[in-house]
Design a protein that fits this description.
This protein is mainly β. The protein has one helix spanning 2-17; strands spanning 21-22, 24-31, 49-57, 66-71, 75-82, 84-96, 99-102, 109-113, 116-117.
Amino acid sequence: MKTLSMLLAIASLFIFTSCTSNTDAGTASVTIDPPTTYFDGVPLVASDILSYTLLWGTVDGGPYPNSVNVGKVTTASIPNLKTGTYYIVATALTTSTAGLQVSGYSNQVTKQIYGIPSPPVIH
């Protein structure tokens, strides 16, 4: 009986220590707070906006090494993110008498992606 209890305890230990977190966890859904100025502080005109680009990274305040153009929508998703904290901003591509320009950053949004536990593996 004592041997059976010990075997069950060891089996439980293997089951619980074999649970790992899946690093390809999910998608961040973002509602864009559109930028209102260019990098030099000059206000942009909303009717001049052609599209938005989401930029993200894992460092608060940037840099934002990843980007995707999401068109002229203010709600978008970033798929295939690994577990972690992401800092996301948006820029607007505009056209005006000065030609094509990129706005300054929108307000930064923080998204936390949580891992999905993998099923236990019994050894």
